[in-house]
Specification:
CATH topology: TIM Barrel
Strand content: 5-15%
Largest sheet: 8 strands, parallel
Structural class: alpha/beta
Number of domains: 1
Order of helices and strands: EEEHEHEHEHEHEHEHHEH
Strand order of the largest sheet: 8-7-6-5-4-3-10-9
CATH class: Alpha Beta
CATH architecture: Alpha-Beta Barrel
Shape: globular
Radius of gyration: 18 Å
CATH superfamily: Dihydropteroate synthase-like
Number of helices: 9
Length: 293
């Protein structure tokens, strides 16, 4: 499936440049396809339980229009049990190596461990998605700076083990913005180029339903940093809070797409999704309409 092409080359203003020089234009919303190579992720844990079927899934998402693949070797669902560095490496390094023999699609690694990040880059990963925003591994900033990596830094209240135990904010967006200001300052002072940072407000990570909705409604506030904004709402439990059903998380496609469209309309640059085909189609329609505004 062809990628969306809405903006003329001369109108392209901002790009994400991977460590190997590959450039991803932000002239349209980018799709980050999710590959959880774990036994316990909330939606697709255990679904891709061999390198062969994980590679097949990545190639499928690429054919459906994914721009980036985000590979995770440790679940970050609420209550998830942490895994060791060795276990995480054992899961993802052979997979990245296998993928690099078949595709050059940019690969993001969903990890907060600097050792995992470095090993992943060594075998061909292009960027890092750190849910701890440099807080869980003091050496992550050094790895990112040394390898000239783009990195997603996410806001999370607490840890995956306790983040949904009565989270509370006086003003969720004000507090996340303050968090990003401090984290950006830390990154730059540690040698990371500001242009390499991507901001994720962390939908569902230590957030109440009202917090998630407020973030999506007021996403434009995050544009003050002049950095790309990533949003991940795909199949998350807040959708089931709005439209309760007994269906599995994989059935939350309608809510996932609606929230992706809202996010892009309000300023998101990258959407992290399980359902690539459906999201690509929805965002093509949105982009086509927005060209007439």
């Amino acid at each position: 499936m062809p990628k969306q092409t809405y903006v003329k080359k001369e109108e392209i203003k901002q790009v994400i440049t991977s460590s190997n020089g590959t450039q991803l234009s932000l002239s349209r919303p980018l799709i980050m396809g999710i590959l959880n190579y774990t036994p316990d992720s909330f939606s697709d844990g255990g679904q891709y339980n061999s390198i062969e079927n994980a590679v097949d899934r990545v190639l499928q998402m690429e054919s459906e229009g994914a721009d980036i693949i985000d590979i995770g070797g440790e679940s970050s669902r609420p209550g998830a049990v942490p895994v060791s560095v060795s276990d995480e490496l054992e899961r993802i390094i052979p997979l990245i190596s296998a993928l690099r023999k078949q595709t050059d699609i940019p690969i993001s690694v969903d990890t907060y461990k600097s050792e995992v990040a470095q090993k992943a880059v060594d075998v061909g990963a292009d960027m890092i998605n750190d849910i701890s925003a440099f807080r869980n591994s003091p050496n992550m900033a050094k790895v990112v700076a040394k390898n000239n990596l783009p990195i997603v830094i996410m806001h999370m209240l607490g840890t995956p083990q306790n983040m949904q135990e009565n989270p509370s904010y006086n003003s969720v967006n004000d507090e996340i913005i303050s968090f990003f200001k401090e984290r950006i300052e830390f990154a730059v002072s540690s040698g990371v180029e500001k242009s390499k940072l991507i901001l994720d407000p962390g939908i569902g990570f230590g957030k109440r339903l009202s917090d998630n909705l407020e973030i999506l409604a007021d996403l434009e506030q995050y544009k003050q940093f002049n950095l790309p904004i990533l949003i991940g709402t795909s199949r998350k439990s807040f959708i089931n809070m709005i439209h309760p059903t007994d269906e599995d998380a994989s059935a939350r496609i309608g809510g996932s797409i609606a929230s992706a469209v809202v996010a892009v309309a309000n300023g998101a640059n990258i959407i992290r999704v399980h359902d690539v085909t459906e999201t690509v189609e929805a965002l093509k329609v949105l982009q086509a309409v927005m060209e007439y505004k």
